[in-house]
Amino acid sequence: MLSIEEIKSFIDRDASSDKKKLARIGLRYYEGNHDIKDYKLFFIDADGKLKEDKTKSNIKISHPFFRLLVDQQAQYMLSGHGGFVKSDDPKLQTELDAYFNENESFVAELSALITGAVSAGFAYMYAYKNESDRTAFQYADGIGVVEVSEKEAEDKCAYVIYWYIDRICKDNKKIKRIQVWDNEKTYYFKQEDEGKIEPDNCFTQKESGNPVNERKHIIYENDDDNDGTDDKGYGVIPFFRLDNGKKQISGLKTIKALIDDYDLMNAGLSNNIQDTNEALYVVKGFQSDNLDELMTNIRVKKHIGVEGGEGSGVDIKTVDIPVEARKTKMEVDEKNIFRFGQGVNTEALKDTSATTSIAIKSAYANLDLKCDGLQPFLLQFMRKLLKLVLKEINDTQNTDYEQKDVYFDFEREIITNAQENAQIDLTKAQEQQTKITTILNTSAQLGQELTMQLICEALELDYDDVKDKLPAPEDDPTAAAKTALNGIVPEGDEV
User: Radius of gyration over alpha carbons of the chain, in Å?
Assistant: First the structure.
C-alpha cells in the first residue's frame, strides 16, 4: 500500500505536470472561461509609465465555440438508434441492453466521458456496485486522477489515486477526499486545505468492529455470512481511461488562437461602440505642464480649463469605427474555427429546399473524420468495461459468454432535408409504377416467367422468393402477376 508521503508526492507532482496544465485550459474553455476574461487596457502616462486604463470600456465576452464543437462531437458519436453494444444471441443482448444500451444512467455517463476526453485530452470512468447489486460505471474528472505504475511505487504495485474537493467549509477551508485504488481494495483519506493527509475511517471492520479506511471493491449480500454481507475485489483496478488520440491532446489545441482572436475582435468592436460618446479632444493654448491632470479631467470630470490667448480652445474630433473590417475578420475566424475544429456550422445549414442532402453530408465530412479518429480509442475503452460485465453475467447466470460474442456499432445519424427525401421517395415510386405498367402491358409477348423476373427487378425483389407462387402456365399472365405479387412488400417500404 502507498504511504501517506507517497500519496502526497504523487498528487503534487501530477498537479504541476504539463499534461494536467493543458487539460485544465481545455476544461476552462469548455466552461466558457476564456483568456479574454483577464484582458486589460493600458496607456502611457505623461511620465512614460505604463498604466492600466480603467476609464475606458473593457467588455469581456467569451464565445463558447469550443463547447459547441465538443458537445457536437459527443452527441454525434452516440446519435445512432438501436444501441451500440450488440450480440447475435438474444439472451445476451437482453443482458447487454440492461447494462449499456437501455441504461440511461450509463449513456449519460458515457456522454460525459467523451465530453471530458475531448475537452481535456483524456477522461476516466470507474466501476462500482449500484443499489441493484449490479456493476455500474461512473464518470470521474480526469484532473483528479493520478495513475501510479509499478516502477514508481515503493511496493512495486500499481495504483490509481482519485481525489476531489468534497466541500468548502464556512471558514473557507477545503475538504479534499482522496481514494487510493488497487486491484482488490479502495483506501480512503482526507485532507483539510493543504494540511496533513490522514486516514478517513468511514467504514467498520467486520471482525473487530473497529473503524477502518478501506473496503473491497464489491459489497454484496450473502446469507451464509454471519453479518449478511461479503466482499471481494474485481481483480483489476476498476479505473478506465479514454484518450482523445494517442497523445492525449485536448481538441482545443488547434483552435485556441482562433477563438482568442475572435473574442478580441468582438471585444474591440463592442468597446468602440461603447466609447463613441467619448471623442478625441484637441487642446489649443494649454499652458500647464501637468498633462496627466488634463487627461484625468477629460476622462473623469468631462471638462477642462484652457489658458486664454489667440488660437486657444478645444476641438472635438470623432473617430470612425472600423465595423466592417472587424466583422469581416470575425467571419473569417468563425469559418476557420469550424474548419480546423472539424465541426459543422449549422447556421449555414438552414432547412430549406436549397440545402440538399448531399450538401449536408458534405458539411459533416470533417466531423466524421474527427469521430473516426476517436472511435478506435472508444472501442478499446468499451472492451475493458465489457470484460467486467461479461464476467458478472457469467457468474450470475451460469453462462460462458466471451468477448467475441459481442460487437460494437457506433452508428451516427446526420440531419437531412426531409422535403428533398420525400420528393426522392415519390419520384422513385413513380418510376417503379411506370416500369411495372409497361411490363404488364407487354406481358403477353414477354411470357409469364420473364414478366415476373422484370417486375421483381423493378421492385428490388428476389425472384426466387416469389417464383413458387407462380400459377400454371395456361393461366392469364397479367392475372398471374397480380396474384403472385399480392401481399409482397418491396424492401424499404415496410410499415
Answer: 35
- State the Cα–Cα distance between residues 260 and 155, nearest whole angstrom: 47
The cell for 228 is 449478511
CA angle 245/247/250 to nearest 5° reads 70
Angle between helices 18-30 and 104-120 (to 10 degrees): 120
Report DSSP letters for 417-438, one per residue: -HHHHHHHHHHHHHHHHHHHHH
Which of 71, 97, 70 has the alpha carbon at shortest distance from 84?
A: 97
Cα dihedral 295→301→303→309 (10° resolution): -50
Look at the block and give the residue holding cell 487642446: 283
What cell numbers appear for 114 in the block? 467523451
**pLDDT class for 393, splitting at 50, 70, 90?**
very high
Q: Are 445 and 459 in contact (CB under 8 A)?
A: no
Give the C-alpha separation, 208 to 279, whole Å.
Answer: 81
Q: List, in sequence order, every residue forming a beta bridge with 343; answer none if it has no partner.
A: none
Compute the distance between CA of residue 234 and CA of residue 132 in angstroms, rounded to an integer.
17
Q: How many residues does the chain have?
A: 495
Cα–Cα distances in angstroms (integers) from residue 334 to residues 96, 267, 273, 321, 324, in the given order: 42, 15, 21, 21, 15
Residues linked to residue 312 through DSSP beta bridges, in sequence order: none
Alpha-carbon gap, residue 170 to 130, rounded angstroms = 32
* Residue 445 neighbours by CB under 8 Å, 6+ apart: none
pLDDT of 215 > 90? The answer is no
How far does the chain reach from its first CA to its final CA, in angstroms? Answer: 62
pLDDT for the residue 390: 96
Q: Do the beta carbons of residue 126 and residue 388 sit within 8 Å?
A: no
Q: What is the mean pLDDT of the chain?
A: 83
Q: Which of 186-195, 230-239, 306-315, 408-417 has the highest mean pLDDT?
A: 186-195
Given this model, what pLDDT does residue 495 score? 44
User: If you ran DSSP here, which 8-state letter would residue 163 be given?
Assistant: E
Q: Are 304 and 314 in contact (CB under 8 A)?
A: yes
Give the separation between CA 14 and CA 162, rounded to whole angstroms.
Answer: 12
217: cell is 471493491
User: Could you tell me if 136 and 130 are in contact, meaning their C-beta atoms sit under 8 angstroms apart?
Assistant: yes
Q: Which residues pair with 241 in a beta bridge?
A: 124
> What is the CA 77 to chain-centroid distance, rounded?
9
Per residue in 425-449, pLDDT tens?
Answer: 566 676 777 877 888 888 777 777 7
Three-state DSSP class for residue 238:
coil
